[in-house]
Write a structure and sequence with these properties.
Helices cover 71% and strands 4% of the residues. It is mostly helical. The chain has one domain. The strands form two sheets. Strands 1-2 form a two-stranded antiparallel sheet. Strands 3-4 form a two-stranded antiparallel sheet. α3 crosses α8 and α5 runs parallel beside α8. This is ATP synthase subunit a. One of its GO terms (cellular component) is plasma membrane. Belongs to the ATPase A chain family.
Amino acid sequence: MIENGSVLAEGYVPPTPDEMHLPDLFAIGSFGVGKQMLLVLLSVVIIAGFFLWAGRKRAMVPSRTQFVAESGYLFARNSLAKELIGAHHFKPFIPLLFASFYFVLVNNLYGSIPLLQLPSFSHPGSAYALAAIAYLSWVGVGIKRKGLGGFFKDLTMPSGVPVWVYPILIPIELLSNMVIRPVTHSLRLFATMFGGHMAMMVAASLAQYMIDSMGGVGYAAAIAPGALGMFLYFLELMIQVIQAYVFALLLAVYMQGSVSEGH
């Protein structure tokens, strides 16, 4: 059977995005609450609970839990905030970068946890919302630090460029920084989480189909998609961590541009 240019096994129905994004579990008035929303709320509890619990004693000689929490904080403080924003400006932005990294990380890792098995940012709405917060943050900081005119001047008029180039360069820079930047910031996170999880679902469903429809022979035939599914599982696990870092890294770069002079 040929469907959309692809040859599909007779009777095999590949998974769809609707199977990943389940219907709302319940509604509060006209506001639906689904699995992903509950996972997002759970991530806040997990992150706050862990770091508050780990730092409750504040011992000079830290326990293993306190050491892990302090290492996590120092990573966000030094590797993201201080190194990228600069030693003179980084301190006010530590909480934002710290929260962004671990919030994205926990919500991504849901996709690799049995039973939960759903990265929150595989839904475009959640990725857009987080990118919008990041967008408003660096734009707001830039306008506050430089004024409206100074912010857009630094954003669209790089130093060292001939004046006659500005009529061409300004629209390009404005489009690139004010439109393309926030869109790609969200799409990068959403696309990797959605694509990786969908690929793993296809491999798992294909292995299950072979076992169910082909009997004993199906167990042997299912080895290939099963092995592919395991490979994709660990690949997705790595990408989940990388994408959390990339999201916070880009936010730090944008913040650096908002507080630094010049372009």
